[in-house]
Amino acid sequence: MGEAAFLLEAGTQMDLDVQARVWNLAEVLASWPLVLETVPGVNNLLVLFDAFAPDSMHLEQALRQAWDTAPGAVPAGRLVEIPVAYGGAFGMDLADLAAHAGLSPEQYVERHSAGEYSVLAIGAVPGFPYLAGLAPALGKPRRSEPRLRVEAGAVIVGGMQAGILPVSSPSGWHVLGRTQLTLFDPFASPPTLLAPGDRIRFLVESFTP
Q1: What is the pLDDT of residues 191-201, one digit of tens each?
Q2: Are 82 and 181 contacting, i.e. CB atoms less than 8 angstroms apart?
Q3: Do 165 and 152 meet the contact criterion of CB atoms below 8 Å apart?
Q4: Cis (ω within 30 of 0) for the bond into 40?
Q5: Strand (E) or helix (H) holding 32
Q6: 8 DSSP β-pair partners
Q7: Cα(144)–Cα(155) distance, integer angstroms
Q8: What global pTM score does this model have?
Q9: What is the per-residue pLDDT across 148-187, written as a single tens digit (0 to 9) for each?
Q10: Given 3-state DSSP classes, what are the helix, strand and coil percentages for the chain, each rounded to the nearest 5?
Q11: In 12-143, at which residue ranges do the beta strands (DSSP E only) sit?
């Protein structure tokens, strides 16, 4: 990735054990003198380093060895409960998602809120959590035409992933509800509510078919 970064990739399938190796390796590399920053992604890890350091030419091999020995133990993480107003004006795609799954809107909400989700990575926009754990039957391919604006707090599904939009932005994901929690505050420390490794439970605050 240019002259001062390496990207470690581990396939395209969402795998919590692989993701745990990404998290654990990022923590290990933070103590390496050559490493300036690590950015965990979904099944990948971006490593920025000091390209002018004398030992930088050996870093690639060291990273390969570190990946091979990185532990795959999944950290416990925090359990964060997210209250959601499902359906109605806050969930304009709920009926379509339910029909695609062969469920009623109420059944879809029951199944979506029954699961436990894991934060794989934070990215795309500030504070956005890529969530694993969506039941396969609840997934639906992303919209062919993204909306130009989806409001902050939208609880969304795109393909086989779940997410929560922390800031208002364009999105091609399907919207099934909204939370009033603030996921990103640039003046807070830390600025994001969620972190990789956290576990998420969605709570039904209200439901409008």
Answers
A1: 999 998 899 99
A2: yes
A3: yes
A4: no
A5: none
A6: 45
A7: 19
A8: 0.84
A9: 999 999 999 999 999 999 999 999 999 999 999 999 999 9
A10: 25, 35, 40
A11: 35-41, 44-49, 79-87, 117-122, 129-132
